[in-house]
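Entry 14. Ran structure prediction on the chain below.
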Amino acid sequence: MKKISKQLVRNYVSTSASSIEIAVSILILIGTIFLSARVIHDVYLIVTHVGSPEKMLSTEIFLAHSLELVIGIEFIKMLVKHTPSSAVEVLVFAISRQLITSHPDMTDVLIGVVAIAILFSIRAFLSSPAHVTYQDDLILNAGNSIQELEDLLHRKVDPALGNTVGGIVVNAARKNNVKLRPGFSVVLDGVLYEVYSMDAHLVKQVKVVPPKS
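Output, structure tokens:
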């Protein structure tokens, strides 16, 4: 009974946290939509003062406002997708905005460029592509996106299955009311997805077996 009650509490907390996260994402999206009016106004000022450079909006201000919207959009994608690449993209845009709009000295520019290079290296490491094993089976990181999976399989994947490879098996397990464990497998649209490895309760790698041609 104790284990059951703990699991119920854990599920409730997880569901509540996900609901709050979705609500926060919606609020950020609403705020981003309203802030887009500022960018539209900036474009209007630029167009109407083309012949008056002294009255025209500066490029730095326009880019700052535009990049703020981009950062907001990427942040929403990070909350929704839960992928390493989306988190890295938020940081890349944030650093880029700082470099473009704050007029830093050469030392700060160099540090910013190095930071961006490191972030791209981290993204390449965390979102490393699948490697081919025997019989052309694929071992994917759970954080690999559906787009990356489609590129590897050379076929479309139903986005309703999940945003990531790990999300596909998690959603399938929930739908079938089955506990996730290494070896759990499901066939969806002719493709076999199998939990290859886990870290505690988190799916780490997923084995994907394409349909035989």
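The helical segments are 2-48, 59-81, 84-101, 106-126, 146-153, 165-175. Will compare against last week's run tomorrow.
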